[in-house]
Design brief:
It is built from seven helices and no strands. It starts with a helix and ends with a helix. It has two domains: 1-62; 70-146, 434 Repressor (Amino-terminal Domain) (Orthogonal Bundle). The longest helix is centred in the N-terminal third of the chain and has 60 residues, at 2-61. It is rod-shaped. It is mostly helical.
Length: 147
């Protein structure tokens, strides 16, 4: 009877392995598919992170400087009417001009009234503002007000 038991036992083991294979092979395929999908997603995420980092670098590089050379400042003329027309051409208020120049609203008002003239570093800012477009000025204002 020992041989019959071994035969039955081996047949049971063989059938059990076959049934297990039927269920485990599709699961193995699914696992491999999921692993490859996760790998692709990881690669995509890292590529996107690199892209975002590059875009942030470029955005930081595009900051608009408010600087002018001393020669430009010397050559430029400043009168109350010119300051007012600069402000009007850029479409900004006295308050916004004051924010851009780094002075008080009262100082910007007095520049336009002719009560006093901007100092050299503020003149440099005004000369730099002359070179900018309305869009650039709006960007600068957004940067300065969000800080």
């Amino acid at each position: 009877m020992g041989k019959l038991e071994v035969t039955i036992k081996s047949e049971i083991v063989r059938l059990a392995k076959r049934e297990m294979r039927k269920t485990s092979v599709p699961l193995g395929r699914d696992v491999r598919l999921l692993k490859s999908t996760v790998s692709q997603l990881r690669k995509t995420v890292t590529a996107l992170e690199r892209f975002v980092a590059q875009q942030e670098k470029e955005l930081k590089k595009k900051k608009i400087p408010l600087e002018a050379t001393p020669e430009e400042v010397k050559k430029s003329r400043f009168s109350p009417a010119l300051i007012r027309s600069l402000r009007k051409n850029l479409g900004i208020s006295q308050r916004e001009l004051a924010i851009l120049a780094g002075v008080t609203v009262g100082a910007a008002h007095l520049w336009e009234k002719g009560k006093f003239e901007p100092k050299d570093e503020k003149k440099a800012v005004m000369v730099a503002l002359r070179k900018l477009s309305r869009r650039d000025v709006r960007k600068l204002l957004e940067e300065k007000t969000t800080k």
